[in-house]
Design brief:
With 388 residues, this protein is α+β, with helices and mostly antiparallel strands. It has 14 helices and 9 strands. Helix 2 crosses helix 3 and helix 7 packs antiparallel against helix 8.
Length: 388
């Protein structure tokens, strides 16, 4: 049996049959993964991957509890939240964070993430405030407000760092951190476009690396969207719409950005979807070589996390992410970057360059029918996700 096959077998056992690793074990594995190496891996790497993958997979249960609590809060307060989704951080992203920051693997706070997408910035702020004052199963121990103070790249969102409250029904799950991102539909459209272009170009535009013209275009567009939302300005972006328009048109002439964005969705050859019950995990796989998307139905069993691990290790040409949504139909809405769906951003870019004011109104979310009695709320209370 090869070293990779053996570590895969050990990992499957670790995920479900072995208690949590100690803090020192997690830290030591992170120090190995901080090193610069690729495939084939050195002999000391597979055991470190095994511990790191086990640590990541053990974030699933607290991540699910936080997401369920967020959905319960939104429905209880009748908040107009478009989508809620959750994901486990990709191993290449974990390794990059280890190399670029002084954080240990144990200290990384966004291995598990929940995303809330609200129709407008005002409603995103309302949801953020409700999280900070919540009576749910988690405590927010840190907030990063990237809307009041946008990043230099133009990234804007609320980030809340949460931990489950200690309690008998939670056990030691309170040691795992979950990052909650709350953003508006326009902020989500911007982030989607950054990631989609980065996927195609094989550049980490999200991390501020890659073609300077594309990076500048996204910074300018973030400033334009912030102005549209009445939000604080983005650093380095002029508040004069005419000057923004001039620079955007200049960049579009170099990049043919609008034309490329409008063609990206058509570039996807196939997007196959399997299954789709409530509260399911799905493995989204984007093959940049063949420009295809496939979705494997995962679930909270051995299959989901192990498939994620296998795909990361064995298929370097694919970008994959293990996500949870309520319905399969929500996958494209929550993770449109993997489907290269940049329609909303392209419309806003066209408007910012003076190509028309169509689709200018902020998107809205259709009202959902009321859930049947004794469904989500009663279930969430029984499970301890939502506290009186």
């Amino acid at each position: 049996m090869s070293a990779l096959a053996e570590i895969g077998r050990q990992y499957e056992a670790l995920v479900f049959d072995v208690p949590s690793h100690s803090k020192s074990e997690v830290v030591r594995s992170g120090e190995v993964l901080r090193e610069e190496f690729g495939y084939p891996y050195p002999d000391h790497a597979p055991p470190a991957f095994g511990v790191a993958n086990h640590w990541r997979t053990q974030h699933i249960e607290p991540m699910r509890r936080v997401r369920t609590a967020l959905a319960a809060m939104a429905r209880n307060r009748r908040m107009p939240v478009g989508q809620t989704a959750a994901r486990l951080k990709r191993m290449p992203s974990i390794r990059k964070k280890l190399r670029n920051t002084p954080l240990t693997l144990f200290e990384i706070q966004d291995i598990a993430g929940c995303r809330i997408i609200a129709p407008t910035m005002a409603e995103a702020a309302q949801f953020r405030d409700a999280c900070l004052a919540n009576r749910l199963c988690f405590d927010v121990h840190r907030e990063d407000d990237y809307i009041a103070k946008p990043r230099a790249s133009g990234y804007r969102s609320y980030h809340l760092r949460a931990k489950l409250k200690p309690g008998e029904e939670v056990g030691d799950l309170s040691r795992y951190k979950v990052e909650i991102q709350v953003r508006s539909q326009l902020q989500h459209a911007w982030a989607t476009a950054v990631e989609a272009v980065g996927l195609v170009r094989k550049e980490d535009l999200k991390g501020g690396q890659g073609d300077g013209d594309w990076l500048r275009l996204f910074t300018l567009m973030s400033g334009a969207l912030a102005a549209e939302e009445g939000a604080p300005p983005v650093p380095g972006v002029d508040d004069n719409p005419a000057l923004r328009r001039e620079e955007l048109c200049d960049l579009d002439g170099k990049l043919r950005a609008l034309d490329k964005l409008q063609r990206y969705k058509a570039a996807i050859n196939n997007a196959s979807v399997f299954g789709g019950g409530a509260n399911q995990f799905f493995l989204i796989k984007f093959d940049r070589k063949h420009m295809t998307v496939s979705i494997d139905r995962g679930y909270f069993s051995r299959h989901g996390p192990v498939s994620y691990y296998d795909n990361e290790i064995k298929k370097p040409d694919e970008d994959s992410v293990l996500v949870e949504v309520d319905r399969v139909s929500e996958l494209k809405a929550a993770y449109p970057n993997y489907f290269l769906d940049v329609t909303l951003f392209a419309n806003r870019l066209a408007a910012a360059m003076g190509h028309g004011e169509e689709n200018k109104a902020a998107p809205t979310v259709a009202d959902e029918p009321e859930p049947p009695a004794d469904s989500w709320r009663a279930w969430a209370r029984r499970k301890g996700f939502f506290r009186a």
